[in-house]
């Protein structure tokens, strides 16, 4: 699945009363904050990751607290921004899905702003500098839409910024949990002859006790 679909699928499973269409129209900051809260609820608040220094190739590790980031940006963000007399609403997952197939970054930015511009059908005419200015205003209005973290290489001291993709963090945890559950089902079913449904109907604590006896 595309990362956009993975994020919406996870939110839909956590919030079955909210329609998929509504989730797709959420501003990106609201979506990312909800994904952070979901990660905290299911897997804890710690986010551990690493990047590669573009200067020397050294591995740069980092650790963040998802709960702190979500709480610091819990205030309702702006609905739109103004630039040169034109109003642009803040983008959503649906908007990003529309431009996901555009390979040229400049054309993708223009198309995205065209979708987000209010009240005009005429082609958008903005310079590259103006597009960057609109994007900067959007980033200030919705700080969790794109999460940038500063990294400093421990080997050469080179400083860089990387984008933190909360969907990837959450999805890695989901995949790991799913594989662990399959192993638990296999181990218990092999020992007792129970079905998958019967094994999964056990509480986490009871499954752990049965696994301890199987290992023993």
List the helices and strands and how they pair.
Blueprint: H1 3-14, H2 20-24, H3 28-43, E1 46-52, E2 59-65, H4 66-72, E3 80-83, E4 86-89, H5 93-99, H6 105-116, H7 128-141, E5 147-152, E6 159-164, H8 166-192, H9 196-200, H10 204-215
Antiparallel strand pairs: 1-2, 3-4, 5-6
Helix pairs in contact: 1-3, 1-8, 3-4, 3-8, 5-6, 8-10
Structure commentary:
This protein is of the alpha+beta class and 216 residues long. Among the domains are: 79-135, no CATH class; 173-215, no CATH class. Helix content is 54%, strand content 16%. The chain contains ten helices and six strands, in the order H-H-H-E-E-H-E-E-H-H-H-E-E-H-H-H. The strands form three sheets. The chain has a two-stranded antiparallel ribbon. It has a two-stranded antiparallel ribbon with strand order 3-4. A hairpin with a 6-residue loop joins strand 5 (147-152) and strand 6. Helix 1 packs across helix 8 and helix 8 (166-192) packs across helix 10 (204-215). The model has no long low-confidence stretch (mean pLDDT 92).
């Amino acid at each position: 699945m595309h990362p956009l679909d993975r994020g919406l699928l996870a939110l839909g499973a956590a919030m079955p009363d909210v329609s998929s269409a509504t989730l797709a129209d959420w501003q990106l900051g609201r979506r990312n904050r909800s994904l952070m809260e979901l990660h905290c609820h299911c897997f804890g608040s710690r986010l551990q990751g690493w990047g590669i220094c573009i200067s020397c190739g050294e591995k740069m590790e980092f650790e963040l607290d998802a709960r702190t980031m979500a709480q610091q940006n819990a205030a309702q963000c702006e609905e739109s921004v103004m630039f040169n007399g034109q109003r642009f609403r803040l983008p959503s997952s649906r908007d990003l899905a529309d431009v996901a197939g555009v390979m040229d970054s400049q054309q993708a930015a223009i198309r995205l702003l065209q979708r987000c511009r209010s009240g005009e059908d005429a082609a958008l005419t903005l310079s590259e500098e103006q597009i960057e200015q609109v994007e900067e205003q959007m980033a200030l209005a919705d700080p969790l839409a794109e999460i940038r973290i500063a990294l400093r290489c421990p080997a050469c001291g080179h400083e860089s910024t990387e984008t933190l993709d909360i969907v990837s963090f959450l999805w890695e945890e989901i995949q790991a949990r799913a594989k662990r559950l399959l192993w638990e089902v296999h181990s218990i079913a092999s020992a007792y002859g129970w079905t998958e449904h019967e094994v999964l109907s056990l509480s986490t604590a009871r499954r752990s006790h049965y696994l301890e006896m199987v290992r023993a």
